[in-house]
């Protein structure tokens, strides 16, 4: 009697496990189908943009510069452009006045304060130069560029706060790390988002806006310094630029995920679109 009850109990447990396993397999299949459908929708949308850019007539500006072509220069390219402009400006402008700022705010009471301020800025650039190849290697191995843009922006905010309120040494090192990360992330991303025959134009625009930012921002900061008679307002303005860079990075992340991680697999998406278009032309 006891053996029969035990066998019956084991049989019921076996049936329950089998039912649970079948139910889990059903759920997994539904999730996989839903995910594949989402990928197909995004790929079809990208393909539609490609066909639209090829079929519709382009004006003189689009033919000469190509910046108006949404396929060759997608929205995420412009978001990365704004992110890099704000991020690089917030760092490079700081370098121009960092020695004076550090001396007046943190090192004024030290006998060798001026020399120490110069060494701190030099150390920031040395650290940034040393860490850049390592970051490039990590990005090539693991990708996640859209996540790293957010991380870079947040680090820039933290670094400016440290320089402004607590410690210039850690702040400058973190700022150098943030600059290196934004540089390797953005410039490698552009190569995934634009065609090889547009690399010159796409990268030149980044340099153009970066130079524009570091040329105009010091004059804006000087204007605020005249109004407030304080050097802190300059660092506060650069902190604002870092916040704007972080906001742009969030938009980059949103746009990237909409296209199923386009920023890391842009060339793969491009090849898929091209093969689809070729096959459709052959069938027609």
From TrEMBL:
The record gives the membrane topology as:
Multi-pass membrane protein
- UniProt KW Transmembrane keyword: yes
Quote any Pfam family the record assigns. Answer: MFS_1
The record lists the membrane-crossing segments as 76-99, 119-139, 146-165, 171-193, 205-226, 232-253
Q: What is its main location?
A: membrane
Q: Which GO terms describe its cellular component?
A: endomembrane system
Q: Does the keyword Transport apply?
A: yes
Give the domain of life. Answer: Eukaryota
Keywords from the named record: Membrane, Transmembrane, Transmembrane helix, Transport
Q: Where in the cell is it found?
A: Endomembrane system
In alphabetical order, the GO MF annotations are: transmembrane transporter activity
> What PANTHER family does the entry give?
MAJOR FACILITATOR SUPERFAMILY DOMAIN-CONTAINING PROTEIN 1
By sequence similarity, the record places it as follows: Belongs to the major facilitator superfamily.
Q: What is this protein called?
A: Major facilitator superfamily protein
Query: What is the scientific name of the source organism?
Result: Paramecium octaurelia
